[in-house]
Amino acid sequence: MTAFQENNESLSRNEFLATELLKIVNSLPGFFPLKNELQEKLDNLRSVLQGLRPPRVMVIGRTRCGKSSLINAICGLRVAKVSDTKPETGMAEWKNYYHDGSDLLHILDTRGLQESIAPRQYDSAKTPYESIMQAVKKECPDVILFLCKAEDVHAASDKDLDECELIVGEIKKLYRRDLPVIGVLTQCDKLAPSRVPLPTDNERKNRNIQEQVQSFFAFLREREGLRGHVKEVVPTGGDAKYEDGKNGLILPDEDYRWNITELVGTMIKHTPREIRGSLARMALITKFQLTVARTVVTACTALCGFVSINPIPGAAIPLVASIQTFMVMYIGWLSGREFSDQPVKDFVVNAGIGVGVNVGMIGIADIGLKFVPGLGSLLAVGAGAIATKGLGDAAIAYFLTLPEARNTTF
Q1: 0.70 cut: is pTM over it?
Q2: What letters, b where the CB count within 10 A reaches 16 and e where it falls short, cover 196-227?
Q3: ∠ CA 88-246-267 to the nearest 5 degrees?
Q4: Among candidate residues 271, 121, 114, 243, the one with its CA nearest the CA of residue 181
Q5: Which listed residue, 82, 84, 268, 342, has the most CB atoms within 10 A of its CB?
Q6: Which is it for the CA torsion 270, 274, 277, 279, positive or negative?
Q7: Which residues contact 108 (CB under 8 A, 6 or more apart)?
Q8: Parallel, antiparallel, or unpaired for β 250-255 and 240-242?
Q9: 3-state DSSP: the chain helix, strand, coil percent, rounded to 5?
Q10: pLDDT at position 230 over 90
């Protein structure tokens, strides 16, 4: 069995444990203290387990609106081909983007709406709509980014809205999902006065940006088929220069991106909760990673305390061990590492003194750590919640807030 298969089996086992614990909590009488809170935290934890896959983002918009540039800006590296003069993207297809072996993001990069010439890349579909729907039938997106150049909000946008409304409606029929749609204004730096770079205190430029944001949002919300899906409109600037070669990193002195962090935060805010951790991991934005990590630590702390205090015959020790180990693995995964035993081993070895003094050793669950010697002793069951909180805080410090973690970039 490969390491990948072992990890998948481990995820399945832990999801099963969370589900079984949820059944036990559901069977408790209604007057049981904190029953509703425990149910919510278990639901959150199970969603986290289900969400250990890269997010799927569909990017649509008019030709030359900056779709590929935005993808690069979000990922922080050159992952999509960008052409200065002709439409580049041909057949709409799901593309998996990797860095250092990590599967970061699945992007549906699509042909531009209202294209006047054929794209450079071949596509058997006759229209952009047909091309997009062929790809959507293979996989359902988690979120739709509908792009519009800031200067084009009032320029024949009705046709673009027609296409977006049709696509959203077809996805709802196919998957019975009400996908969030986030409007994205691109190339906001070109709004007058165009020579003023972003961010800026220039009142005229900021006023022009806000007026275009409000107009675009109003146009989106006017459509009956989009009204319940459109969440926000985010203004952005995606210009940047990258190192040569595939997956070249942004050159620090040529990074002119603006408001990309806010866009990612909006995506995290409005997408299904089970993929929010994937988005935070993909963007490697510490603020969002810490938010997701602390949510997981809080949930795991409450669950371990519940399991430790309440007698569940034959289940307490393996459940506490499993929850603790999953928590550390998940925080390591949030930082960009693989969801495997190796980050946990690194954590134990490199932070072993701090962990030993402050919270004790990790209880070994069934997630691939059985071959690590000397880590089999559990904390006292009665101290499960305190130990889990301390362990989670130590993992956050090690993986996310140490200088080495903060300096990791994609």
Answers
A1: no
A2: eebeeeeeebbebbeebbebbbebbeebeebe
A3: 70
A4: 271
A5: 268
A6: negative
A7: 56, 57, 58, 59, 92, 93, 94, 95, 132, 135, 136, 139, 141
A8: antiparallel
A9: 50, 15, 35
A10: yes
pLDDT tens for each residue of 168-182: 999 998 887 889 999
Angle between helices 35-50 and 316-334 (to 10 degrees): 50
Q: How far apart are CA 210 and CA 34, in angstroms?
A: 44
| Helical packing angle, 3-27 and 316-334, nearest 10° | 130
Alpha-carbon distance of 50 to 295, in angstroms, equals: 16
What is the token pair recorded at 66? 């900056």
**SS3 for 370?**
coil
Q: Give me the count of residues in the chain.
A: 410
Which phi and psi angles does 57 have, rounded to 5°?
Answer: -120, 125
pLDDT of residue 356: 38
CB 340 within 8 Å of CB 7? yes
Half-sphere exposure of 182 (CA within 13 A, CB side): 23
Q: What is the DSSP letter of 383?
A: G
How do beta strands 230-235 and 181-186 pair?
parallel
What is the distance between the alpha carbons of residues 295 and 45, in angstroms, rounded to a whole number?
Answer: 9
Locate all alpha helices (DSSP H) within 176-285, ordered by sequence: 203-222, 224-227, 260-270, 276-283
Closest to 148 measured CA to CA, from 109, 189, 184: 184
